[in-house]
Amino acid sequence: MKPALLEVMRMNRICRMVLATCLGSFILVIFYFQIMRRNPFGVDICCRKGSRSPLQELYNPIQLELSNTAVLHQMRRDQVTDTCRANSATSRKRRVLTPNDLKHLVVDEDHELIYCYVPKVACTNWKRLMMVLSGRGKYSDPMEIPANEAHVSANLKTLNQYSIPEINHRLKSYMKFLFVREPFERLVSAYRNKFTQKYNISFHKRYGTKIIKRQRKNATQEALRKGDDVKFEEFVAYLIDPHTQREEPFNEHWQTVYSLCHPCHIHYDLVGKYETLEEDSNYVLQLAGVGSYLKFPTYAKSTRTTDEMTTEFFQNISLEHQTQLYEVYKLDFLMFNYSVPSYLKLE
Ligand SMILES: Nc1ncnc2c1ncn2[C@@H]1O[C@H](COP(=O)(O)OS(=O)(=O)O)[C@@H](OP(=O)(O)O)[C@H]1O
Questions:
Q1: Contact of 126 with 281, CB cutoff 8 Å
Q2: Cβ of residue 143 lying under 6 Å from some atom of ligand 1
Q3: Is 0.90 exceeded by the ipTM?
Q4: Torsion sign over Cα 191, 197, 199, 204
Q5: How much distance in Å is there from the Cα of 235 to the middle of ligand 1?
Q6: Is CB count within 10 Å lower at the N or C end of the chain?
Q7: Residue 236 class from Cβ within 10 Å (0-12 exposed, 13-18 middle, 19+ buried)?
Q8: Side by side, which strands form the sheet with 113-116?
Q9: Would you list the domain boundaries of the chain?
Q10: Which tens digits make up the pLDDT trace of 186-213?
Q11: Which phi and psi angles does 60 have, rounded to 5°?
């Protein structure tokens, strides 16, 4: 072979090697950025590290400074237990839970957590966190998950999807927690969101039309058809009307925590409160062993329902209706240690 031909072949081989190296590096760089985008801190959110479960962390804290928090949570658990005991002594209703009652209990197997979600108590953000925790690296930043995706039931596993022995095992060994809010503030939050926002058409159609038909004398045809201008007084009248719950259970946005999470049947290890939402949420994350890199999303919304706003909404509610409404939500008030609101004039 001529030396010139050999030289050309050598150059060809070198070119191919350089090209292959460039292509390989390019693929590696893309791969690296994909991983970094999903998990910028390079932390493995997948599975719990170490041998201590959240339950062990909660009941036997290693760090001494946690003991004050532990005492606070013990008091909240005792309050639930005492209220349940007092209620069972006076109530004739006694029943066993079925898997159907466990639809609100979201399970994270990797960190051994069960979260009972209560709508209007920042459950969207907690569902986002549960997706990060149970997503095995699929998500890292909760706020990158759109709110509507957090509410797609297929994106989270709930306790009713397991067999009875699996349910019992998880109820026994996982850390069970929920978040609660002052019941009437939660109700005003639900009313404002579902009945005063133009875009919530499905709620107007499904509930608004029914409420107006039942509660408004001389309603216009348009109001009966659209159901989009329900007044707070009408909403309250609907909630205290005995027909309402006889017809079908309350919608989850105004259903009591007692009925959604069954705190007298399920022993919750941790009761978080909306009033200390970020602190309590970050405590849960710390117990789950992810607190150093996963935080509860902070919030700057200025239109949040406040105590003052709730007081205003209740000003137009009659004494009789206030008393009847308190009866509907009484167990939630007592169980989670919310005092009778000062604006309430009970009969
Ligand atoms: N981080 C943080 N801090 C304080 N408040 C927060 C936070 N995240 C959500 N929220 C408030 O929670 C209310 C919405 O709750 P949900 O997500 O459960 O609503 S829903 O069930 O999905 O409709 C809604 O309350 P209102 O604004 O009073 O209606 C949100 O403002």
A1: yes
A2: no
A3: yes
A4: positive
A5: 20
A6: N
A7: buried
A8: 157-158, 105-108, 113-116, 175-180, 270-273
A9: 50-180+256-304, 184-240+306-341
A10: 999 999 999 999 999 999 999 999 999 9
A11: -130, 70
Element at 126 (helix H, strand E): helix 123-134
Question: Are 297 and 128 a contacting pair, CB within 8 Å?
Answer: yes
Question: How many CA atoms lie less than 13 Å away from 250 in the CB half-sphere?
Answer: 21
Does any ligand 1 atom lie closer than 6 A to the CB of residue 279?
no
With CA atoms as reference, report the closest residue to 286 among 169, 133, 79, 123: 133
In order of 118, 213, 235, 281, 347, the CA distances from 200 in angstroms are 19, 19, 16, 28, 35
Which amino acid would we find at residue 134?
A: S
138 in helix, strand or coil? coil
**Phi and psi torsions of 42, nearest 5°:** 65, 25
pLDDT, tens digit (0-9, with 9 covering 90-100), for 77-132:
999 999 999 988 776 666 789 998 999 999 999 999 999 999 999 999 999 999 99
How many other CB atoms sit within 10 Å of the CB of residue 84? 19
C-alpha span between 211 and 238 (Å, rounded): 6
Tokens of 156: 């989270």
Tell me how far CA of residue 103 lies from CA of 89, 160, 213, in angstroms.
27, 6, 31
Does the CB atom of residue 310 touch ligand 1 within 6 A? no
CA distances from 149 to 49, 153, 156, 292 (A): 28, 9, 10, 25
Distance 103 CA to ligand 1 centre (A): 20
